[in-house]
Write a structure and sequence with these properties.
The chain is an alpha+beta fold. The protein has helices at residues 42-50, 92-102, 107-120, 136-149, 166-183, 194-200, 218-223, 228-233, and strands at 4-13, 16-26, 31-35, 57-62, 65-66, 77-81, 154-158, 186-191, 203-208, 211-216, 238-247, 252-256, 260-264, 275-280, 286-289, 300-311, 315-322, 327-333, 348-353, 359-361. Helix content is 23%, strand content 35%. The strands form four sheets. It has a six-stranded mixed β-sheet with strand order 6-7-8-3-9-10, sandwiched between helices. It has a five-stranded antiparallel β-sheet with strand order 13-12-11-14-20. The chain has a five-stranded antiparallel β-sheet with strand order 15-19-16-17-18, with no helix packed on it. The longest helix has 18 residues, at 166-183.
Length: 363
């Protein structure tokens, strides 16, 4: 049985439906992420799990029992907010102990559990500090320790890394993964950052306009998006209008706008004549000066010129314009020492990719 079950939950605000018939399950010990753009309903759903808001329809169950009539303070659930919500006049140890004091836990037990929680987030040496004496990452860890100290069945995290700078954010991602693994508590994490969701999660629910567009493991979401929204929202991708020409057991043959005949992975149930989009990731597209040499077969090839490029340190993304004006992106790692780019604007190149990559989307 799933730890958390969300059954056909609907939440409306006047004429606006923030959450529209969402159903999903979260397993015990899972790092589960709700991902989507602003206004997609992910935070509203989190607030209903926490008990800060009530659904208009549907039900939420924890360990098989409905949460609908249980007030937030009585739910074995804790929420960590982006703002940390620390008490500025209390020390680290007092902030972490606060929920246990409210629950009237014995002083000796409070001390033991607070020390355990602080050790788990590597803050034992900061326990007498006030919040203003801490860095952003340390404040975040205090908030996590406070969330873990009363041993909730479920820890909800609402954009907890959103206020941190990029480097600290990456460090905290590693901390979160290790922490969740060590304490074994189920995490439900809300973010609009695709990279963050892919890095942290066991499974991700991608939300859009109050609905779940796709629920899957990170690698499946990235490699096999179910529709155009998911493909476009998760990472960079090339999408071109396409029509199914032939559908076999070994490959799908497409007529792709601006490219011509393209072979893709098989999708046996796809009827000939179906119109949609062919999507392929920039890192799946090989790029070469004039022509692409490869030991393996690259069935799909097209020529163009470098229109522009974006250098970001470890990789460079090249924007290539084909002869008819169609544009495709290809990515190259900057692995050669001291070499920032391989091509200049205007250079003739060939793009090529295997028939084993890419996906045809009819929705």
């Amino acid at each position: 049985m799933a730890l958390l079950e969300i059954r056909n939950v609907v939440r409306r605000f006047g004429d606006f439906t923030a959450v529209d018939g969402v159903s999903l399950e979260v397993a015990s010990g899972e790092f589960f992420t709700l991902l989507g753009p602003s206004g997609c309903g992910k935070t509203t759903l989190l607030r209903m799990i926490a008990g800060f808001d009530d659904p208009d329809q549907g039900d939420l169950l924890l360990d098989g029992k409905s949460l609908r009539d249980i007030p937030p303070e009585q739910r074995p659930i804790h929420t960590v907010f982006q703002s940390y919500a620390l008490f500025p006049h209390l020390s680290v140890v007092e902030n972490v102990a606060f929920p246990l004091r409210m629950a009237k836990v014995a002083p000796a037990e409070i001390q033991r559990r607070v020390q355990e929680a602080l050790a788990s987030v590597h803050l034992s040496e900061k326990q007498r500090h006030l919040p203003h004496e801490l860095s952003g990452g340390q404040k975040q860890r205090v908030a996590l320790a406070r969330g873990l100290v009363n041993r909730p069945r479920l820890l909800l995290l609402d954009e907890p890394l959103g206020a941190l700078d990029a480097k600290l954010r990456e460090e905290m991602q590693v901390e979160l993964i290790n922490l969740q693994k060590n304490v074994g508590i189920t995490f439900v994490f809300v973010t609009h950052s695709q990279a963050e969701a892919l890095a942290l999660s066991h499974r991700i629910a991608v939300m859009n306009q109050g609905k779940v567009e796709q629920l899957d493991e990170p690698s499946r979401l990235y490699g096999f998006p179910r529709n155009r929204f998911v493909a476009d929202f998760i990472g960079k991708i090339n999408m071109l209008a396409a029509t199914v020409v032939a559908s076999g057991s070994d490959h799908l043959e497409l007529d792709v706008a601006g490219v011509g005949r393209v072979l893709g992975p098989p999708q046996p149930a796809m009827p000939v004549g179906t119109r949609g989009q062919f999507a392929v990731r920039p890192e799946q597209v090989r790029i070469g000066a004039g022509s692409v040499d490869s030991a393996g077969p690259l069935s799909n090839r097209v020529k163009g010129r470098i229109l522009d490029f974006l250098y970001v340190g470890d990789v460079t993304t090249y924007l290539v314009e084909l002869e008819n004006g169609t544009r495709l992106e290809a990515l190259l790692p900057n692995s050669a020492p001291g070499r920032a780019k391989f091509f200049e604007t205007g250079d003739p190149v060939e793009l090529a990719w295997s028939a084993e990559v890419g996906v045809f989307l009819d929705a």
